[in-house]
Every structure is written in C-alpha cells, then in structure tokens.
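Try this one yourself first.
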C-alpha cells in the first residue's frame, strides 16, 4: 500500500543517493587529478575523477529503487517486512526482559573474549618478535576464534544461524588479516571489470586501480596510493575501451558482468566518499562475502534436510577464500546452492503444490549462478525431473517445462552467439599459448571424434581420482599450504550420509541417481572440452587449464542425491536412527552433531588462516 511512511522512506533514500552523486561531482570538481602517462610516468595534464558520471550513476540507482519500490509497496511487501521487524524486536525485548540474568551473562562473556585475546597475544609475544602489524592480526585472530566458539555454543542445533555467525566472523578475519590486500583467481581482470562497472559513461582509471588491475596478487604488498598521488592514469568511454582483457562480447559480456555490478557499486560509493583505496578494497571484499553469506543462508532456510552438508561445502577453505575476494566464484557457488535448495525442497514436499514465487526464485538463482560460467548449463537439465502432480494444472506444468527449455536456450545462446556475431576480433584465451585457436581446435575435434574421446577419458581418469584430488577444496591458491584435506573430505562424506530426514525418501530413487550422475559427467566433460578448445594447443594430446576447483559447484547436488539411501530415512534422520539404536537420548536434539560439524569446519578455516596469513 502507498502510505505516508513508505513515501517518506522512499524520498529519504532518493535524496541520499542524489547527495552521494553530487558529492562525487563536487569532490572531482574541487580536487583535480593529474593524468599520468603509464609508459613514461610523466604528468600530462589534469582530469576530473568523478565528473558528471557520478551524478548519472546516482540517477540510475534512483530509477532502480523506484522501479523496485512501487511493486513492493503496491503488494504490501514493505509493510509486511516492517511489521516482521517490529514483531521480532518486540519478541526479543520481552525475551530479554524475562531472562535478564542470562543475557547479562552473554554480554559479559562477549566483553571477556577480546580481553582473553589480548592476554593470549601478550603471552605469545614472549616467543616471537613483537611487531605492531603482526600483533594486530594475532589479536584479531584470537578474538575471532573466541567469538566463533561462543557462536557454536549459543546457536548449537541451529545450522542457519551457526553458518551466518561463523561466516561473518571468519570472513572478517580473512579480509582483514590478509597482507596482500586481495586473493583469488585472475583477480587483476576481475578488479578491472569492477572499476568499469563503477561508472556509467566514462571510465577514469586512477593509479590505485591501475596497480590492482595490472599486478599479480603475489607481487604487491603495502598500501595503495591515495590523495594527490592517486592520479588518473587514463580514461576511456565505457564500452569502447577496457582496462583488462574480457574475452566476451555483446550478450555474453552483459550477462557475465552481472556478477561485478554489486562490487562496482561499492567502489562507486567509496570513491564518492573519498575513502582510502585500501579501505574501499576491504569494503569490496567483505561486501562480496556478505552477499555470499546471505544467499547461502537463504538456501539453508529452504532445505528440510541437507543443511549441514550444504553448510560444510559452503565453508570449505577454497570456496570460503574466494567468496571474500573480487572474483565471481563465490557468486556462482552461492546462487547455484540457492537454486538447488529450492529444487530439492519441491521434491521433498510432493503433497504441496509449487508456488510462483518459489519458481521465480529458483530460476533466477540458476540463471544468476550460471552467469560467470555458462558451460555449467547441463545442471539446468535436472529441473526437468520435476513431478507433474506438483502443478495444479497441465498448463502450469507445460509452462514450467517451457521455462526450463527457455532458460537453457538463453544460457547456451549467451555463450554461442558471440562466436557468430563477432568479426575481426580474436576470441581465443590470451592466457594460452600462441598455438591456441578456437576454430582450429573445433575442427580437430569434429574431424577426429574418437581421438578426442580418448584424450578426454584419459584426462578424466586422473582428474576425478579422489586420491589425487583430495586437496582441491582446502588449498590456499598461490600459497603452499593445505588445511586438513583428508579430515575435510571425511567430514563432508560423513555428513552426506547422516544429515537425512524422512522426506529424503522422495530423492532416493535410482532414476534420480542415474540422472544426476549423467548430468554430473556431462558438465565435467563440457567445461573440460571448453578448456581444450580455448586454452590448449590445437591437436594436443593433453588438456590444460582445468582446475579441480571447478568440481566444487557440483559437490552438493551430487553428494545429496548419491549418498541418499532409503534405509536412512526410516527415522527422523540417520544420526537419530543410530542414537535411538544405542539409546543415547540426550543427543536427540542434534546440538552435539551441529557443534561437531561446525567446530571441525571452523578448525579447518582457522588453521588455514593462521598458517597462511599470519606468518607472511
């Protein structure tokens, strides 16, 4: 409903955005920046950093806010949201009033944690040199460890709240303690795209942007240039130039760049407020991790079973690490988890008819998750395995099938169309050798299908060997450190077998298992072939560029279905079946189970942070 309160709130948001845009303009107007020739480092003139582009961005954001606000107010979503917040506040107010002593104890324990962290660091300083930067990182580490233990105890048995609290706490540690400012895969390119998405019309590249977009992650230490020293290197009209190689054009570029828009907005706001480049970079990294945490939280809330499996996979070091970076890996994994959560929920509840809202969220999640890497489109084939009786009418079921088909065509089209519409531009991956040729490699495969099949199968034999790839989820990218790889693999397998409920009987059919296996291997074969085409020399007997981290988005649906057996669904869950059999009734609340799972994953993450970041 359109009421006075909603209109006033909307006006406050719009005025705030416009003020930020104006501040961007006036900051640029009052503080000219020198243009520097990147080859000679000579100052060539002056240039505005924000110009009118900051105002255009603010106006664009206002249009988006109004477009979202009108339907939200019309259908009463805003009022429901505000009412929910008020009810929650009143509930906690009453609960705190009735349990004053308990909450007072909680607050005292929270205040005691940093004191204990300082004491531990003081003792630790007797054995290591006392350096201010290292001391700050160690105190942060010990404080986050204490907060994590506190969260595991307080939220035991509540996987959604446990994941959110631990993810935010440990994610903050990863962002703050990392001395190289940012980490991930191809972060130079991703940061360049973020810079471009922070502008509407003209892109101004300041020196700090140029450093991050041109420097490998292991080569830069220290603070970025700021103030007068952060001069504009060059500028170019958006869409006509680029700060880094994209490898994408037209529809493909627009689709894949969705992942960088949120981080580009953070850069825009930070630049408008004239914040230090290091602070802006930390904001971007933690903002990316906040989005990852929120999306996975929504996925956990939707599932009836498999919450602990999803949380464990979401907290493996490699996934957790890249979620707090400027890349798109975290975005992809989070949205795919959300899509699968809504899909499996529909299978778990055959007596409930599908709701349009759930279908919109599920399709949106898959489309957003596939934006960075469309070669995973075979995952959409799983959606065809939806029960017909979930829909109220035959027309509804046919519309659903048409939507699945349309989504697959769109995703494939965004990948294939540029190869036929782009002329005069090389589509090869410049990271490969000089002998890489997409057209030549495709012709080789078409002319020698049996030869390539043998090459592919030989490669997959080693690629899928768990004894050779047990460390791919616990590595720290360019750092030579692994954090309990065998323990992590065993925990995930144990959780996949035990985190079950009676509704899992609807996802334990042999047909579904065979179908998921087919999709699993089809997806792997497809992204392996894509790297053979775009990254490997023509006609080579080997395949380059296929990393084992590409398997992580497939882990949850694969383990969730394959490790689901009917005999595990006879009790409320497999763990409870074991407990009932041996008569340990005190553990029926699942609290020790959740403390064990999240405790182990926290140990893995803290061990990795300690050995990787605190001793560099």
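Now uncover the answer:
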């Amino acid at each position: 409903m359109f009421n006075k309160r909603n209109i006033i709130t909307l006006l406050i948001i719009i005025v705030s955005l416009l003020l930020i845009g104006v501040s961007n303009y006036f900051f640029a107007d009052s503080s000219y920046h020198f243009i520097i020739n990147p080859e000679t480092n000579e100052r060539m003139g002056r240039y505005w950093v924000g110009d009118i582009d900051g105002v255009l961005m603010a106006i664009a954001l206002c249009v988006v806010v109004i477009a979202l606000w009108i339907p939200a107010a019309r259908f009463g979503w805003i009022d429901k949201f505000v009412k929910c917040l008020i009810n929650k506040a009143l509930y906690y107010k009453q609960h705190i009033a009735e349990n004053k002593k308990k909450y007072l104890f909680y607050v005292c324990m929270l205040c005691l944690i940093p004191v204990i962290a300082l004491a531990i660091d003081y003792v630790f300083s007797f054995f290591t040199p006392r350096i201010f930067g290292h001391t700050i990182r160690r105190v942060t580490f010990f404080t986050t460890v204490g907060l994590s233990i506190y969260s595991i105890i307080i939220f035991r048995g509540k996987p959604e709240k446990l994941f959110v609290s631990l993810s935010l706490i440990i994610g903050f540690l990863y962002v703050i303690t990392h001395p190289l400012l940012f980490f991930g895969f191809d972060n130079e390119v991703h940061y360049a795209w973020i810079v471009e998405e922070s502008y509407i019309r003209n892109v101004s590249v300041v020196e700090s942007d140029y450093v991050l977009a041109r420097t490998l992650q292991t080569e830069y230490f220290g603070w970025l240039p700021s103030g007068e020293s952060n001069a504009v290197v060059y500028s170019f009209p958006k869409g006509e130039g680029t700060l880094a190689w994209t490898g994408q054009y037209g529809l493909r570029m627009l689709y894949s760049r969705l992942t960088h828009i949120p981080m580009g907005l953070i850069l825009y706001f930070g630049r408008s407020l004239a914040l230090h480049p290091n602070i802006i970079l930390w904001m971007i990294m933690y903002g990316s991790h906040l989005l990852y945490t929120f999306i996975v939280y929504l996925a956990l809330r939707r599932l009836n079973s498999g919450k602990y499996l999803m949380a464990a996979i979401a907290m493996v070091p490699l996934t957790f690490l890249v979620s707090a970076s400027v890349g798109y890996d975290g975005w992809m994994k989070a949205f795919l988890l959300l899509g699968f959560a809504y899909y499996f929920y529909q299978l778990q509840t055959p007596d409930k008819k599908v709701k349009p809202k759930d279908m919109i969220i599920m399709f949106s999640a898959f489309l957003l998750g596939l934006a960075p890497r469309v070669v995973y489109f075979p995952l959409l084939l799983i959606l065809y395995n939806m029960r017909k009786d979930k829909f109220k009418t035959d027309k509804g079921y046919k519309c659903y099938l048409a939507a699945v088909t349309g989504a697959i065509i769109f995703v494939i089209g965004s990948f294939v169309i540029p190869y036929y519409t782009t002329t005069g531009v090389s589509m090869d991956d410049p990271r490969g050798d000089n002998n890489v040729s997409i057209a030549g490699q495709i012709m080789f495969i078409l002319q020698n299908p049996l030869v390539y099949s043998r090459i592919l199968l030989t490669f997959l034999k080693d690629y899928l060997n768990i004894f050779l790839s047990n460390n791919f989820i616990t590595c720290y990218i360019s750092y030579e450190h692994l954090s309990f790889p065998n323990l992590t693999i065993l925990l995930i397998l144990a959780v996949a077998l035990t985190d079950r409920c009676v509704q899992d009987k609807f996802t334990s059919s042999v047909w579904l298992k065979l179908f998921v296996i087919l999709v699993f291997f089809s997806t792997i074969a497809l992204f392996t072939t894509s790297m053979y085409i775009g990254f490997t020399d023509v006609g080579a007997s080997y395949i380059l560029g296929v990393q084992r981290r590409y398997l992580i988005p497939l882990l949850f649906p694969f383990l969730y279905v394959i490790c689901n057996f009917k005999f595990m669904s006879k009790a409320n869950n497999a763990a409870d079946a074991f407990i009932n059999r041996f008569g340990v009734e005190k553990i029926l609340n699942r609290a020790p189970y959740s403390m064990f799972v999240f405790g182990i994953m926290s140990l893995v993450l803290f061990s990795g942070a300690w050995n990787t970041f605190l001793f560099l």
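Discussion: Residues 303-582 form one domain. Residues 578-588 have pLDDT under 50 and may be disordered.
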